[in-house]
Amino acid sequence: MLTGMQVAVIGGDARQLEIIRKLTELDARLSLIGFEQLDHAFTGAIKEKMDEVDFSNIDSVILPVPGTSLEGQVETIFSNEKVFITEENISKTPAHCTIYSGISNSYLNGITKKSNRRLVQLFERDDVAIYNSIPTVEGTIMMAIQHTDFTIHGSKVAVLGLGRVGMSVARTFHVLGAKVKVGARRSEHIARITEMGLTPFHLNDIEQAVKDIDICINTIPHLVVNASVISRMPAHTLIIDLASKPGGTDFRYAEKRGIKALLAPGLPGIVAPKTAGKILANVLAQLLKDDLQKRKGKEE
Ligand code: NAP
């Protein structure tokens, strides 16, 4: 349980509702900032404005998946008001207060560092990334179906990268009957691709590998699908780029060549916000329990 814990949930989208639900069930007390337009009421959670929050009582601050903008603004789907989080807010929290965010940027890194508070980026955790790969793959399948006139079954698919997303994508398209080849640069990845019953290729040989494909799914956050690679693809190839913005594709050249290339960020929040929220809620609940235990241990 999280009895006695005071948490500020600042901004966010539908995924945050699952976090609020879970933490209130565990008996934490919540200040909800940026949720004025939310009809639903949660027992143990009160809606507040940023200037009404007593940060000196806050044990944890939970920010939405994108964290903040470079100006410190927090996105608020359930409010029309602009919400900003500042170094001054964070500095008022007790020294043990932890800031949780999906990802971070120079602004958020800066204010947490200057105020000497711990920042946890949930999307850097393997467990979150692997669980999140499930709705990401489902969203990728949706896009492949929407943007092609052939079945995934029997199609030739190149997956670039064998990280947490790449592995799930490659396995699922294989199970759907696609002929999957996977591009990687590490010898242990080439070995794993082979073990999975898929066709490996080294990324140095990407230009050769894409010559006969129908779909290219990129998970590498670097420019790997460059103009030279795109020029080797069959004209009907669909490129789905899952890598974080700006993706790993030369979209300008793809358009010039008439190849459909789609940047598809944030699929879990789009295709399965409830599941994506539950993934974060479960991990956060465990992390907050650990925080509380540690604090109690120190107090005793
Ligand atoms: P990951 O586990 O770190 O995997 C990244 C993969 O890219 C690894 O195979 C890595 O290989 C490879 N790679 C990285 N830099 C490379 C380079 N310069 N050249 C060649 N290969 C390189 O990351 P992930 O969790 O799978 O996520 C992949 C991307 O998808 C990230 O950008 C993430 O933000 C994004 N993502 C998007 C969605 C969505 O909805 N679209 C959802 C979740 C994640 P090495 O091991 O050899 O470095």
UniProtKB/TrEMBL annotation:
It is an enzyme of class 1 (oxidoreductase). GO terms for molecular function: oxidoreductase activity. Residues 6-123 form the Dipicolinate synthase subunit A N-terminal domain. Residues 149-290 form the Alanine dehydrogenase/pyridine nucleotide transhydrogenase NAD(H)-binding domain. Its EC number is 1.3.1.-. Keywords: Oxidoreductase. The keyword Disulfide bond does not apply. Gene3D superfamilies: NAD(P)-binding Rossmann-like Domain. It holds the Pfam family DpaA_N. NCBIfam families: PRK08306.1, spore_dpaA. This is Dipicolinate synthase subunit A. It comes from Bacillus methanolicus (strain MGA3 / ATCC 53907).
